[in-house]
Design a protein that fits this description.
By secondary structure, the chain is mainly α. The chain has a domain of 78 residues: MazG-like (Helix Hairpins), CATH 1.10.287.1080. 64% of the residues lie in helices and 0% in strands. The chain has six helices and no strands. α1 packs across α4 and α2 runs antiparallel to α4.
């Protein structure tokens, strides 16, 4: 029985571990950006299924078993996201930092606090 893998320390560690995981199984040949994007959407859909038809309050109070299932789907989503970014040589931290800066400009707190309107609506 294989030993428990060491915990992932950061995003770079995760990217490297996922890269090595795919290479050891000769799966890199299947990990084109197109295929990874499709897998990301499929896993996202599996995540959404856990919340489908729940009321808002139910979605915030998941039973432990359901929460564990959601955690597995989140792990799949993150894994495919990180793998896709790796294949496209995109720095996810830089991308999210730039996007956050853009959102801060598009959604100034003074104009949107408590509102779900899109920036084109105010």
């Amino acid at each position: 029985m294989p030993s428990e893998p060491a915990p992932v320390r950061d995003l770079d560690d995760l990217r490297q571990r996922l890269r090595e995981f795919a290479q050891a199984r000769d799966w890199d040949q299947f990990h084109s950006p197109k295929n990874l994007a499709m897998a990301l959407i499929a896993e996202s859909a599996e995540l959404v299924e856990h919340f489908q038809w729940l009321r808002e309050d139910q979605s915030t109070r998941l039973a432990p078993e359901k929460k564990a299932q959601v955690a597995e789907e989140l792990a799949d989503v993150l894994s495919y996201l990180v793998r896709l970014a790796d294949k496209l040589d995109i720095d996810l931290f830089a991308a999210v930092t730039a996007k956050l800066a853009r959102n801060e400009t598009c959604y100034p707190a003074s104009l949107v606090r408590g509102s779900a309107r899109k920036y084109t609506e105010y």
